[in-house]
Amino acid sequence: MQVVNIRQLKTNPSVALREAKRELMMVTNRDKPDALLVSMEQLSGIPNLEQVRLVLGVAMFRDKLLSLAAAAKVAGKSLSEMLTLVSNMGIPVVDYSEEEAAAEAAFAEKWINERQAQQAIKAV
């Protein structure tokens, strides 16, 4: 699957149309999926469009082309449904090194502690 943004599509639409004859083209607008460019030749071979959207969303998330939220929109699923789906498929939802995960956990703990302190002050 190819990804093209609006600017690239406007600059040279013939390239996108030519590529769409070979494979599906995701058109993005401000880094969010906006459209799917499919050659009419390929369209006749799509028996179940809902299933295609689901497979497309999962594949683009797995290949790190889209965020989970953007992939959920492509797939026509809610964020929680998509999270459950990719988790059940064994696709990692986050891709952190041990150091990054530890830093994120420390940041979250600090933020929670600060919020609790702020709420305690407001309660007084």
- Nearest-integer average pLDDT: 85
Judged by helices, strands and strand pairing, the structural class is alpha+beta
Radius of gyration: 20 Å
Q: Biggest sheet, in brief?
A: 3 strands, mixed
| Alpha-carbon distance between the two ends | 57 Å
In the predicted model, the low-confidence regions spanning at least 5 consecutive residues are none
What's the total number of strands? 3
Adjacency order of strands in the biggest sheet? 1-2-3
Assign an overall shape: elongated
Question: What share of the residues does DSSP label as strand, in percent?
Answer: 5-15%
Helix content: 55-70%
Please, how many helices? 7
H/E series, N to C? EHHEEHHHHH
Explain the layout of strands and helices.
Blueprint: E1 2-5, H1 6-11, H2 13-22, E2 25-29, E3 32-37, H3 40-43, H4 49-62, H5 68-75, H6 79-88, H7 98-123
Parallel strand pairs: 1-2
Antiparallel strand pairs: 2-3
Overview of this protein structure:
- This is UPF0175 family protein.
- Belongs to the phD/YefM antitoxin family.
- With 124 residues, the protein is α+β, with helices and mostly antiparallel strands.
- It is built from seven helices and three strands; from the N terminus they run E-H-H-E-E-H-H-H-H-H.
- Strands 1-2-3 form a three-stranded mixed β-sheet, sandwiched between helices.
- Helix 5 (68-75) packs across helix 6.
- The longest helix is centred in the C-terminal third of the chain and has 26 residues, at 98-123.
